[in-house]
Amino acid sequence: LQGDLLSAIAAAPNLEGLEAARVHALGKQGAVTALLKTLGAMAPEERQAQGPRIQGLREAVTAAIAAKKAEMERAVLDARLASETLDMSLPVAGTAGGSVHPVSQVMDELAEIFADLGFAVATGPEIEDDWHNFTALNIPESHPARAMHDTFYFDKVDGEGRKMLLRTHTSPVQIRTMVTQKPPIRIIAPGRTYRSDSDATHTPMFHQVEGLVIDRGITMGHLKWTLETFVKAFFERDDIVLRLRPSYFPFTEPSMEVDVGYTLVKGKRVIGGAEPDGWMEILGSGMVHPEVIAACGLDPEEWQGFAFGCGIDRLAMLKYGMDDLRAFFDGDLRWLRHYGFAA
Ligand code: PHE
């Protein structure tokens, strides 16, 4: 019997066949089980003789099944290994990780610096209407400043008959904020702006950050302190001198342009130094014009404020030493790597 059972196990073609052989030998109705059952009816001496033999048979069959099963499983695994080419021991190919663009980097830095001064971040639409972009900012239809902005206009007007355009600066966010929020207001508004212009220092799309403070009793002293604190934090040095030059913007009065002092280090312009070798313009600013405050439905007798607007791309160029603005928007990884912005 043992020989028959073992050869049936050895001949099993697959796991199902092996299971059938196991049931045939060790199952409830199996041959070995039947033999075990006969032990009970035997005389003691006979049982002593037959018991070990039947147990031996059972163990031999059990061991043969286990061995056959292991062999079959190994064969299945070998077949898989032979057919699949995945080699887990090979080193992985390098994966390209993303990185932060210099413009985004500067926007993050600005948000952080101004958050410390109590400014929230505000946003507005890039597709604007001419009331928010011009009229409410004290630039009426006939004003020459409209022509100076090289505006991209859409063919259509909006539901209120206003001309639609790509915003030429972030100043319309001043209007949107004053119209919807009660003073006191302290916001910066970073974002994309558009003008029909292109050379080494101008791209049709560029980035600005607007700043706006509206409260009672705001003076130019607050403006100057805020700009100085911001510029020192941004360029990470304390010995920075600002120069405030009288200027003109329709939406501020008085208006000024702000220059930052640079010193020449081995022929290169480096922002900062107590005794500057020259000046670079970085932003426009001024006290918010009473007409603008009134256009937003606030009483200019009660509320005053200051505003500033600053080119973000220009800030990035000055801080990180880049010289061609157009490269910002080429998506060239070599350029980003060169300035340490991509791995
Ligand atoms: N909007 C102006 C520009 O684009 C900058 C500015 C903003 C000036 C706020 C004064 C106050 O040039």
TrEMBL record:
It catalyses: tRNA(Phe) + L-phenylalanine + ATP = L-phenylalanyl-tRNA(Phe) + AMP + diphosphate + H(+). One of its GO terms (molecular function) is phenylalanine-tRNA ligase activity. Signal peptide: none annotated. The keyword Magnesium applies. Binds 2 magnesium ions per tetramer. Its cofactor is Mg(2+). Pfam families: Phe_tRNA-synt_N (PF02912), tRNA-synt_2d (PF01409). Its main location: cytoplasm. It comes from the Bacteria. Keywords: Aminoacyl-tRNA synthetase, ATP-binding, Cytoplasm, Ligase, Magnesium, Metal-binding, Nucleotide-binding, Protein biosynthesis. Residues 104-318 form the Aminoacyl-transfer RNA synthetases class-II family profile domain. PROSITE patterns: AA_TRNA_LIGASE_II (PS50862). Mg(2+) binds at E253. It is found in: Cytoplasm. CDD domains: PheRS_alpha_core. NCBIfam families: pheS. Belongs to the class-II aminoacyl-tRNA synthetase family. Phe-tRNA synthetase alpha subunit type 1 subfamily. Tetramer of two alpha and two beta subunits. This is Phenylalanine--tRNA ligase alpha subunit. It comes from Sphingomonas abietis. The lineage of its organism: Bacteria, Pseudomonadati, Pseudomonadota, Alphaproteobacteria, Sphingomonadales. The gene is pheS.
